[in-house]
């Protein structure tokens, strides 16, 4: 393993402190990808569903009165086109209802059906267990510290975005 670490250091510019941000980004990306792949596989195996479907159900669960398709897209940070296909399948499966806005027929509200709420709650409980299991190697104090550091990183990214927009 030491050889692999040394090779990685050489590829990233030599000294352990050089390119720290890049190393951190790659570590975050690796962890995210590993967790996401595990969850995708578990959702498929246990519930015959996909992560995008789960994410839509989770977003709608947080908004019992429903969301417009645009609000749902922003909430999930994906394009309207991506959401439309997933929502169409969830409507067909009876998990989500879609109704036109009385004020603007071009705008549609989507919300969980009773079946959607029931299915999501069952999946969410199991999903919670998977996440707990994957994070079980991190004690509470370290988890709190990591959470706080990631919050600082998020603020830094938002500040960068704001600075880029004004430049």
UniProtKB/TrEMBL annotation:
InterPro entries: HTH_MarR-typ (IPR000835), MarR/SlyA-like (IPR039422), Tscrpt_reg_MarR-type_CS (IPR023187), WH-like_DNA-bd_sf (IPR036388), WH_DNA-bd_sf (IPR036390). It comes from the Bacteria. GO terms for biological process: response to stress. The keyword Metal-binding does not apply. Keywords: DNA-binding, Transcription, Transcription regulation. The keyword Transcription regulation applies. One of its GO terms (molecular function) is DNA-binding transcription factor activity. Residues 21-155 form the HTH marR-type domain. PROSITE patterns: HTH_MARR_1, HTH_MARR_2. This is DNA-binding MarR family transcriptional regulator.
């Amino acid at each position: 393993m030491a050889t692999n670490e040394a090779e990685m250091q050489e590829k990233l510019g030599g000294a352990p402190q050089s390119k720290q941000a890049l190393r951190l980004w790659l570590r975050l990306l690796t962890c995210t990808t590993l967790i996401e792949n595990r969850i995708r596989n578990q959702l498929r195996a246990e519930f015959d569903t996909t992560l995008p479907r789960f994410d839509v159900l989770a977003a709608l669960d947080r908004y019992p009165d429903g969301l417009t398709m645009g609000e749902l897209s922003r909430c999930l940070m994906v394009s309207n086109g991506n959401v439309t296909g997933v929502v169409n399948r969830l409507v067909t499966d009876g998990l989500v209802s879609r109704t036109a806005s009385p004020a603007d027929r071009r705008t549609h509200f989507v919300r969980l059906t009773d079946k959607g709420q029931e299915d999501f709650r069952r999946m969410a409980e199991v999903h919670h267990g998977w996440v707990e299991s994957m994070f079980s190697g991190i004690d509470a104090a370290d988890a709190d510290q990591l959470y706080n550091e990631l919050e600082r990183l998020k603020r830094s990214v938002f500040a960068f975005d704001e600075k880029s927009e004004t430049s």
